[in-house]
Design brief:
Blueprint (H helix, E strand, L loop, with lengths): L1 E4 L2 E2 L25 E4 L7 E12 L8 E7 L14 E7 L3 E5 L2 E13 L3 E9 L11 E2 L4 E10 L5 E12 L5 E6 L3 E6 L3 E4 L2 E8 L12 E10 L27 E5 L6 E3 L3 E4 H4 L3 E8 L8 E2 L4 E11 L2 E11 L5 E3 L7 E6 L4 E3 L2 E5 L10 E8 L13 H7 L2 E3 L3 E5 L6 E5 L8 E3 L7 E5 L5 H13 L1
Length: 471
């Protein structure tokens, strides 16, 4: 507790102030009679860890089995130590901690402690990282499941933050089907089957928002996967011109015809089609080709869509009575050729949203009090972007960061107020309508500081007095 009497901090501790009450001064309570008691309330921080579970069906865990699960969140949401670019990952291997519930054995891993410093509801997305080319080459079907974890942190009014609840919702199951089901844990099931394989074709959506008003949200953009055909030989070299259309490519579960359209499945831009199943009897020894692109509705003014064209080549190698399935990704070049992506490279689409810039000319007035302006008298003013709040994130980090990023351009940062023809008020302007002060390339609330340049004027006043004296 802080104790003050007449604005003076009291020494020692306690919750009382001892002293004398002074009589009223001119009918008013003197400042020395003002007593202040200030209680300082703070809370202990709270930590919480989110975890993931892995089930492997069809065979026992092998030494080389490694599955990566990621935890993602929006800017400003607390993350475990070591997270990079709002993403934290854990590996689930043969040696991971084991938990058995009934007749199901799980491998488990925790993303590490997350420290919360204030109350709020914090949302996270948990999903398995699906490799790029060669996904499932070891006969494992990767999980397309996605979970949303909502952590509610409250102040217990007893000096501590507490985690009131953790709500886990399965938004998609392992096959990529929408579920929206509340569950207890984030569980990812991978399946090994020498006679049947599942492949999940996926991509990544990114949005460069130069305007600051078009945020990437679920199903903002749409993507189409088309079955192009295939090859009778799973080792055939891929060339879009040599694909055999009569060899029908299996399509994602639930697809009618040879095209499947999905939206970006999550706020983080992940694009995932439902799993495609291949069997030894029907598909062994064959390769299938799929083309996928982003749809361009042309209905969003200012949006530049990514026109990239990608191909997925799924090869089903015959292995005894079973098959081993792998996927390769290719990107089409402008001349019609294709280039294979790296083993762990995910096909990506990047859109750019921009708006026409707008400008403003900032103005002010200078008033001289107690006298008229002197002939030739002038004052200089400087303009600068306001310093951002160090704790702000995202679009809340406005002016200084926006200037640094080029989203806001300060064209004129100095103005002069000169003696007016009459009166004591002079106007000044940073630039003109033709050459405005500031140009804005995105939306937002921006703050600027205008300060007067300090000038030592005592000598100027002395010269003015001497001039009048000798006149």
């Amino acid at each position: 507790m802080s104790r003050k009497a007449g604005g003076e901090e009291q020494s020692g501790t306690g919750n009382t102030i001892t002293g004398k009450i002074v009589a009223l001064e001119d009918g008013k309570i003197p400042a020395s009679n003002k007593l202040e008691f200030t209680n300082n309330y703070s809370v202990d921080l709270v930590k919480n860890g989110l975890s993931a579970k892995k089930v492997l069906e069809g065979r026992n865990w092998a030494d080389g089995d490694t599955f990566i699960v990621q935890l993602a969140a929006e800017d400003g949401v607390p993350m475990p130590k070591g997270a990079k670019s709002k993403v934290s990952t854990v590996e689930l291997t043969k040696n991971a901690q084991t938990q058995t519930v009934g007749d199901i054995t799980y491998k488990t891993a925790t993303f590490g402690d997350i420290t919360y410093v204030k109350p709020g509801t914090y949302t996270y997305t948990i999903s398995e990282v699906i490799p790029g080319s060669d996904a499932g080459a070891d006969g494992i079907s990767y999980s397309a499941a996605r979970y949303k974890a909502e952590v509610v942190v409250e102040d217990n009014q007893a000096g501590a933050l507490v985690v009131k609840s953790v709500k886990m919702t399965q938004e998609r199951n392992d096959a990529g089907d929408d579920t929206k089901t509340e569950v207890a844990d984030a569980i990812f099931t991978n399946r090994y089957d020498e006679h049947e394989r599942n492949i999940t074709i996926h991509a990544q959506k990114s949005l460069t928002d130069n305007a600051g008003t078009f945020l990437l949200a679920q199903n903002t953009f749409s993507f189409t996967l088309e079955g192009m055909g295939g090859y009778a030989d799973d080792d055939a070299a891929f060339d879009p011109k040599t694909v055999v259309p009569s060899i029908k490519a299996p399509m994602p579960q639930g697809t009618e015809g040879n095209t499947a359209t999905v939206g970006n499945n999550a706020d983080d831009g992940a694009v995932t089609w439902p799993a495609i199943s291949y069997t030894a009897k029907a598909d062994a020894g064959r390769a299938y080709v799929y083309k996928f692109t982003e749809e361009n509705p042309g209905s969003v003014t200012g949006m530049t869509y990514d026109g990239s064209v990608y191909y997925a080549v799924v090869r089903n190698d015959k292995k005894g009575a079973g098959i081993q399935t792998s996927v390769e990704y290719y990107k089409a070049a402008g001349d019609g050729s294709v280039k294979q992506l790296g083993k762990n490279v995910t096909p990506s689409f990047t859109n750019i949203y921009s708006v026409d810039p707008t400008s403003v000319t900032l103005q002010g007035q200078k008033t001289v009090s107690g006298r008229d302006w002197n002939q030739g008298e002038s004052y200089t003013f400087n303009l600068a972007a306001a310093t951002d709040d160090a704790g702000a994130t995202g679009l809340s980090k406005t002016t200084a960061q926006a200037v640094k990023d080029g989203a806001v351009a300060v064209n004129v940062n100095q103005a002069v107020a000169s003696a007016p023809e009459s009166g004591r008020v002079a106007s000044f302007s940073f630039g003109t309508e033709a050459a405005p002060t500031v140009t804005f390339n995105r939306a937002g609330t921006f703050s600027f500081n205008i300060t007067e340049k300090a000038v030592y004027r005592r000598m100027d006043r002395l010269k003015e007095k001497l001039k009048k004296f000798f006149e």
